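Pipeline run #58 for the internal structure catalog. This entry was flagged by the ingest filter as a single-chain record with no existing model, so it goes straight to prediction. Upstream metadata was stripped on purpose; only the residue string is passed forward. Reviewer on rotation: M.T. Logging verbosity set to normal.
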Amino acid sequence: MNVIHTSPAKIEKIRSYGLFADCLFFSNNEYVMTAAEGYYVYALEIQDDEIIEDYELYDDEIIAEIADNLGVDNDIAESLLDGSQSANDLMLEDAGEADWWIQSKQGECAKKMGYKACQSTDEQGTVYIVPMMGRESDLKLISKRG
């Protein structure tokens, strides 16, 4: 399947820093999350068997990192990783940023488990969280809008 990513800047090199580390977010439909006048539209071809759903995610190290970072116990951290709860559900401080950071952990966990993407849900609906470090050539520029 082809999934779509939009970016306010042309993507030439993926870096692993910030809230989302090396993860890019894709959708089945084009949507824009920038106030910039123009944006770039990218497609990524990904097979169904390369995608794990968030409820299937599990990794002891990542769960421990979530627990430590957010000050919760491991059971709650596991429920955050597998998407059965959100930071907003738990009324954690800075819940929005915490949920975005957890999405990057979902992408990292998918990669550790041998998958190329994690299917999850966010404010836009179904989202594919894809760790992209070293995979710039997999992105296909479709168009520049605006």
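catalog note: The chain has a mean pLDDT of 93.
catalog note: Strands lie at 2-7, 23-26, 39-45, 51-53, 117-122, 125-131, 140-145.
status: ready for reviewer M.T.
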